[in-house]
Amino acid sequence: xxFTQPTGTSMDLLFLxxxxxxxxxxxxxxxxxxxxxxxxxxxxxxxxxxxxxxxPLFVGFYYxxxxxxxxxxxxxxxxxxxxxxxxLAACLPTSLSIATGHFALASVLLVLGNTLxxxxxxxxxxxxxxxxxxxxxxxxxxxxxxxxxxxxFAVYYAGTPTMLAALLALIMSFATSYARARGExxxxxxxxxxxxxxxxxxxxxxxxxxxxxLAHSTEGFVPHPSYTVTKAALWLLAVxxxxxxxxxxxxxxxxxGTQSPPSSPVRTRALGxxxxxxxxxxxxxxxxxxxxxxxxxxxxxxRR
Length: 304
Fold this sequence. Notes:
Layout: H1 8-35, H2 56-75, H3 80-99, H4 103-126, H5 132-156, H6 161-185, H7 197-219, H8 228-258, H9 271-274, H10 293-303
């Protein structure tokens, strides 16, 4: 009996089967548990709290799938910031894998980095370690990771129209995040918009996993495959991210426009309060007669 060495296409197919099985089999199990009433879906978000491309069923499945890892992470002595920085460390090889065309590896690293990003919030809430500094670090790292990942796509598709899709998705994802931060600073909280950060990463992760087998089956093992599935995902992401940014800006501006002005007007300070206090002039000195009057006066001033 002879064994043939697996080809590159069969290896891509094996990876795709493993990736799909790792997601579809647990998802089917979760759906069965939900239908039997053994698990419950997360509550639907209120208007202005952010709609999702993937609804409560997928969000609940993702947290249910990660629950063993979350419990294990909770038992460690690591702080939430450790997991935040670990997600940043995982983002660097992810972006490099995308920029060099290793999309299968990038899909695994993207899932790993997104998981670490979920863990830091879970640990902070369950250990009572929520802080403004941690929230600031988490948001900043998220923006850096978004820039690196979408920047990796821009590098791989440099010189093609798809590069514009990657750059547009990058700009609009930043605009979406900034609109929320600036709106909250002005008193209008809300994360309205269809394409949230988790939805962007889920869409890109699926595209990265599907691309190698389909591209190698149709294009062969060329030096620079076009990865049509990822190209389509980037254009879809660019359109949905633009719609999300626009809808969030409109939402926040509407809320700010309906806010009533401050009830107490700002007190106008009197002109005398704004002018600097001038030094008081010295007391008038007693007049003396005679040729030594000036000297006597100055001498008397320093003797007081």
